[in-house]
Amino acid sequence: MVSAYVSVFEFLFNEVLLIQWAMFLWYTLTPRWSKKTTILCFLPICLLAPTFAALFPSRSVVRMFSVPTLMIASAFVCYRSKPIRTFFCAFYPRWRPWCVKR
Question: Which of 47, 68, 87, 90 has the most CB atoms around it within 10 Å of its CB?
Fold first, then answer.
């Protein structure tokens, strides 16, 4: 029987990807607060986003939009770089011209 929900391995894979994404944002954007406060604010979001998404079936619209929307919103809360740069670094981190620190 095939389940529409995520397995443990998919969940752990998503957690690792989100933590890498958070580290990328840390090194490319300007934090709004001190290092410790930003990590304490951003880490629970990275840990809870896949948990929230795991509650919905894998091909649902809510799951498809919940995690990216939550990540973009948290990037705007935790970092104070220009809005366009924050959006592109949060939404598509490999797009280099917007994400390089100057």
Answer: 90
